[in-house]
């Protein structure tokens, strides 16, 4: 039985997963399965700012370096996640901004330094970077983060320019959730991309996270959404796919989940711009979902014992057909 990875390689696409570095260190089955099933990996947490610079000027690259080395050893590409986000910022940074000891001018320099340092460290080893993550609200207005408050909307263009200068070959992505289909939020990204491109900002990709929940149904107009970004010359990617449900699992929910995974995969395979499809963890053993959504879970293609669910089968069939 061919792995997802073998089928993806035949189809000329990347099948990826988020990687939990604690699990990679402790769990042999996790290590083996990650290598066998995937040809792309994303750090679930260890490339985020709070992880790489826990104290100002004190860096901890060890877990991120470990992932990049693991990927190289197993012939996998790496998606870098993520440079600019409102969440998982180091305490020294949020505190400094809140108490006024870091002003806007200094903050801009700190951001520039963060992007430059991290992107340069992995220069040539990251295929796609999520440069800015989750910058819009559901209604399409810019998210009210310390970046917007202190630096104004130009922080987005600056981030892409700084990342590009640090690694001109990495593909630079916007990334968000609830942007699978055509809606106010994805349309805000579409307009932003047009504006950025019009003034020559180096932005090459639109990352669609793909955190779905079966109780909310499947998003509409996914193919149309991919097509409009493709028409702007953008690459697209599904970057964090999982499909949660209200527990307990039953056969019907499991079948619905499988069809949602398949429909997102088919949307990717049906678009020339989409060559990368990443799940946000592949075993329920390490999924972030139950910790955040009480009473929900079972969101990944394998159960806690690495048993393959119908969703795994649909991914396999989709890749085999693609
Ligand atoms: O590292 C500490 C550890 O030292 C401590 O013992 C433990 C106790 O709670 O917490 C650990 O940190 C946790 C971290 O994951 C690593 O496990 C944080 O509390 C927890 O908040 C953090 O959650 C991550 C979340 O982002 C943070 O917002 C999830 O694992 C991760 O899956 C999730 O990923 C995000 C993407 O980056 C962006 N898109 C949405 C996606 C899901 O929320």
TrEMBL record:
<keyword id="KW-0624">Polysaccharide degradation</keyword>
<dbReference type="InterPro" id="IPR017853">
    <property type="entry name" value="GH"/>
</dbReference>
<dbReference type="Pfam" id="PF00331">
    <property type="entry name" value="Glyco_hydro_10"/>
</dbReference>
<keyword id="KW-0858">Xylan degradation</keyword>
<keyword id="KW-0378">Hydrolase</keyword>
<comment type="similarity">
    <text>Belongs to the glycosyl hydrolase 10 (cellulase F) family.</text>
</comment>
<protein>
    <recommendedName>
        <fullName>Beta-xylanase</fullName>
        <ecNumber>3.2.1.8</ecNumber>
    </recommendedName>
</protein>
<dbReference type="InterPro" id="IPR001000">
    <property type="entry name" value="GH10_dom"/>
</dbReference>
<dbReference type="InterPro" id="IPR044846">
    <property type="entry name" value="GH10"/>
</dbReference>
<keyword id="KW-0732">Signal</keyword>
<keyword id="KW-0326">Glycosidase</keyword>
<dbReference type="GO" id="GO:0031176">
    <property type="term" value="F:endo-1,4-beta-xylanase activity"/>
</dbReference>
<dbReference type="GO" id="GO:0045493">
    <property type="term" value="P:xylan catabolic process"/>
</dbReference>
<feature type="domain" description="GH10">
    <location>
        <begin position="1"/>
        <end position="318"/>
    </location>
</feature>
<keyword id="KW-0119">Carbohydrate metabolism</keyword>
């Amino acid at each position: 039985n061919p792995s997802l990875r073998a089928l993806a390689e035949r189809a000329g696409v990347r099948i990826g997963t988020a990687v939990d570095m604690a699990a990679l260190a402790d769990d042999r089955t996790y290590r083996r399965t990650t290598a066998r099933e995937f040809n792309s990996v994303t750090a679930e947490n260890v490339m985020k700012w709070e992880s790489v610079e826990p104290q100002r000027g004190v860096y901890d690259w060890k877990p991120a370096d470990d992932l990049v080395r693991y990927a190289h050893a197993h012939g996998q590409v790496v998606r870098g996640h993520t440079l600019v986000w409102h969440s998982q910022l180091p305490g020294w940074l949020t505190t400094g901004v809140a108490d006024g000891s870091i002003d806007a001018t200094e903050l801009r320099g700190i951001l520039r330094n963060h992007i430059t340092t991290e992107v340069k460290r992995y220069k040539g080893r990251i295929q796609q970077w999520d440069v800015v993550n989750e910058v819009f609200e559901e209604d399409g207005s810019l998210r009210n983060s310390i970046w917007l408050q202190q630096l104004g909307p130009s922080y987005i263009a600056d981030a892409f320019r700084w990342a590009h200068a640090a690694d001109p070959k990495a593909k630079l992505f916007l990334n968000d959730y609830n942007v699978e289909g055509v809606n106010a939020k994805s349309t805000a990204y579409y307009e932003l991309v047009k504006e950025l491109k019009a003034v020559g900002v180096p932005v090459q990709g639109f990352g669609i996270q793909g955190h779905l929940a079966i109780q909310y149904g499947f998003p509409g107009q996914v193919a149309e959404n991919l097509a409009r970004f493709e028409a702007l010359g953008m690459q697209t990617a599904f970057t964090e796919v999982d499909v949660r449900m209200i527990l307990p699992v039953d056969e019907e929910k499991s079948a619905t989940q499988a069809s949602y995974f398949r429909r997102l995969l088919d949307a990717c395979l049906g678009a020339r711009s989409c060559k990368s499809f990443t799940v946000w963890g592949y075993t329920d053993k390490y999924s972030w979902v139950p910790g955040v959504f009480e009473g929900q879970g079972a969101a990944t293609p394998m159960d806690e014992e690495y048993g393959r669910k119908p969703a795994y089968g649909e991914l396999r069939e989709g890749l085999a057909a693609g």
